[in-house]
Design brief:
about 425 residues, mainly alpha, two-stranded antiparallel sheet
């Protein structure tokens, strides 16, 4: 019996999405490069080339800026792989979508998410039994910090009618609970925000009208009430159980935006470390002159934190930051940041379609664009080393193109008959 080629690419899709959870970037990059090579297409649409060009532009700017400096080859090569990551991811998603059966595209995404969720449960059990991880922070440290992909799968399952999933009601019910509980157990603030944004997007509440404004106002009201309740409870740092998560939520509104930090106060520095990175980056780049401000310091550039800080190991110099915009600013300057914002704008500005499946994918991409503004600011967006959103976006772009062609074929066949 001949092994269908689409199975191979479905397995590669799972590996490309799943391996980043291991948090071994060298392995991830190798698997992504291999998959991109074996799934290479003979032609690409204007749409995918246009979207990818923003990230190619960021990469090229960083390459050019590098020639003005004398960095070590190791740091240059490492930065090159970081900046190539979104480009490779987008192309992988696009190419794999072309290689698998059109009708099985979303099934592949769903099954991948379910398998990853099940593995997550096993890792949590292992962390508790073998690592004696009993607090939220310890479990997250050993079993994973976040999972954007599972949130996307959860949204697709909750809105299964809109994505025309070819699954039974029982499968949808079981899969929804499996993925929902797994996604919740990451206790990741960004995933909660992501879910809210994507849910509102799928409901069509980001279209400016009276209903959407009321819905957003209600959502903001609930968030405000919830946050007020957390302030009243006043959770403590490293508290037991869910208290640790509540403490992180308490400090979240200020954490990425604070402009003054007492670096000699470890609590203030720890709670607002993302802001500290941003402050150091802006000062270092702008002090290097107007050319660096506009075009960056290139690949191999690093930020001097002025002291050693524990980031899985003691580090004083860092090449990438928590903030995706600031990482791009460091490597490619303000021009690079504008290109990054332009890519997000392209996601948000989707053309209207009368085809239901295309219209619903547009809603998901609009929600993704809005979430990317938040994700880039606090969690690096596409540049996060264990993130795979870029693969999903490439896949969605390709699926839309194939759906349009399929619709045109159906229309032509209807006219012919």
């Amino acid at each position: 019996m001949r092994f269908p080629k689409r199975y191979l690419f479905q397995i590669l899709f799972f590996l490309c999405v799943g391996i980043p959870y291991i948090d071994d970037y060298e392995l991830t990059f190798f698997v992504w490069i291999f998959t991109a090579a074996v799934s290479l297409s003979h032609s690409y649409s204007i749409g995918i080339l246009k979207f990818t060009s923003f990230y190619i532009g960021i990469f090229v700017l960083a390459v050019i800026a590098t020639f003005a400096h004398d960095y070590k080859a190791y740091y240059i090569i490492r930065d090159a792989t970081y900046l190539l990551k979104p480009i490779i991811g987008i192309l992988i998603g696009y190419q794999i979508c072309r290689r698998i059966d059109f009708k099985n595209t979303f099934k592949t995404v769903i099954y991948t998410g379910v398998i990853i969720a099940l593995i997550h449960y096993l890792v949590i059990v292992y962390a508790i039994i073998e690592k004696h991880a009993f607090t939220v922070n310890e479990i997250r440290l050993n079993a994973g910090m976040f999972s954007d992909f599972e949130v996307y799968v959860l949204i697709m399952l909750l809105f299964h009618d809109k994505f025309e999933l070819d699954l039974t009601k029982k499968q949808i019910r079981y899969f929804t609970w499996i993925v929902a509980i797994s996604a919740f157990l990451y206790m990741a603030r960004t995933n909660f925000v992501q879910f809210l944004i994507l849910f509102l997007a799928m409901k069509g509440y980001f279209k400016i009208n009276r209903t959407s404004l009321v819905a957003i106002a209600v959502a903001v009201g609930f968030v405000a009430i919830g946050y007020s309740a957390i302030l009243y409870i006043n959770p403590k740092r490293n508290g037991p159980g869910i208290e640790a998560l509540l403490y992180k939520i308490k400090v979240a509104p200020v954490e990425p935006f604070k402009t003054k930090i007492d670096v000699d106060n470890w609590k203030d520095l720890n709670d607002n470390y993302r802001s500290y990175e941003n402050i150091r980056t802006v000062k270092q780049v702008t002090r290097s002159g107007s050319k660096a401000t506009y075009f960056g310091l290139g690949m191999g550039s690093r930020i001097d934190l002025k002291r050693e800080i524990w980031l899985r190991e003691n580090l004083r110099y860092i090449s990438i930051l928590h903030n995706g915009f600031m990482t791009v600013f460091l490597k490619s300057g303000l021009v690079g940041v504008l290109l990054s914002l332009a890519s997000i704008l392209m996601l948000i500005r989707q053309r209207k379609s009368s085809v239901p499946i295309l219209s619903n994918i547009n809603l998901l991409m609009v929600g993704t664009g809005i979430f990317m503004l938040f994700s880039n600011w606090v969690f690096m967006g596409f540049y996060n080393l264990i993130d795979s959103k870029s693969i999903l976006i490439g896949l969605l772009i390709c699926f839309k193109e194939m759906a349009v062609k399929d619709q045109m074929v159906s229309v032509n066949e209807g006219i012919s008959s």
